[in-house]
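Structure ticket #2291
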Amino acid sequence: MLSNLRLMGFYASLMTFLGVTAIVINGAAGPFDAKYGDIIIGLRSESLTTFVELLTYIGNWQTIVILCLLTMFIRKDVRYKFGIPITIVAIISSLANRIVKMLVVRPRPDASLHLIEQGGWSFPSGHTTTIVAVCVMTAFIVAKCDISKVKKTLISLGLVVLMTVVALSRIYLGVHYASDVFAGYALGLATYLLVSMILFKKKSKTMRWSFSFLDILPTADVLQKNKEDYAINKGLEMINARPNTENKKPVLIVMAGGLGSRYGGLKQIDPVTEQGEIILDFSLFDAHRAGFDRAILIIREETKEDFDARLDNGARKYMQVDYAFQSVDDLPEGYNLSANREKPWGTAHAIMAARDIIDAPFAVINADDYYGVDSFKQIYKFLDGNRTEGSYAMVSYVLKNTVTENGHVARGICQISDDGYLVDIVERTQIAKKVDSIEFTEDGDTWTKLDPDTPVSMNFWGYTPTMMREIENRFEAFLRKAENNNILKDEYLIPRVTDEVIKEGNASCKVLVSKDKWYGVTYKEDKDSVVEALAKMKENGKYPEKLWK
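Resolution: structure written out below.
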């Protein structure tokens, strides 16, 4: 949708530029140039002139292009996110400006107005064209970076001020007409919109490339050993190459961004031992023992300090723990659906938050569930020995061991083949324990019994990196459906995405049966049983008295 808006913006900018060009060629721009030229030139003073002269040299196209090219030698993430697109837009805008100058051949204002020496043709302003294209592209990229909204706003305002002052400096110095600058604005904006439509497809919390542009660069980090399985989407709009995961150690993704509405607080960091440990400490401890060296926590940005307080003197002393922030406004371009929604979009959307920092097989767990030692050993062994794309795994538990006495829970009801592969999974969001049975409901009125020994998913998954592409590519379809259903409550769930991929024949999912008992804290009342169980495990020597010594 936003691609269409950008296309409309491109046409509007281009038509504005062409309109100003026609007025200039026909000699009708005189009154406009005289009026606004007199206003700006009337501001001249000795001290202001010194500042403007410095500013205009900083904004010339040669300086900008050189600075952009220098970003190609900065560290990889800056080079790819900023250096490449900004350099491209700087070069293209400069070339476009040069071509137009040679076609229009408009002389500069009378030399008596010049405060600096300036050769060449006047229309359009090259400084304005290039600085507008570069500043707007920079603001676009900054908007997608993982920084606070305050910083994004301040940087964007600074860029707007910079490009406006540089543009006006050209009139102030007497080397351009006001119509030159106005046309430069329109041409710079049109150039940015054109380049951004080519390079970028979708909005995300962190920058995503829309096609295999990076793959043609002669960089060892980018060139992939096995280029295959190219997917063509919307008439060659996007090409995604399979990532090379050779020799990449498995990574653990922990979903910890929930609001804890049923629990009554941030249950992910509520202590469950006398030593102040949380359930996540046990999961990270077991994961580290199984072989995981890195974990990525999916959290809400405002809870970062709370998690830092728990992790800095604990798990972070033994393994790398990073964050990815889940936000309700992390949506495809053109969607603005989060105004009235506070609840996150679901487990698949949570996993998607880590899409730009995952290049290895990964496991997924909930932060508020205890899974057990054996489960982590099994999933790590599977992922570490698995280099086949589309080969997934799931740790299953028995339904009767995963329900609570204190309310309803959500579980993925699984059907498993004789050879141990997932055939079907249906997410039931309201499963409750009755007096002598376990039942689920879809409408709150009609209840259906479930076999207590039914295998269920507890969101303990193992994936290869292409699953991120599957999750991201299907998100827009989910949103379209949710718009017609219940946009405030519908959730984008990982069991449903996995089920779709399997049934389309694009993946298989091995079911790993856990020998451990699951414990969790869906409700506040669940905490006592979890505290008691973990204390007993410590007494039995399954865990040390203090996990992170």
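Closing remark: The two ends are 52 Å apart (CA to CA).
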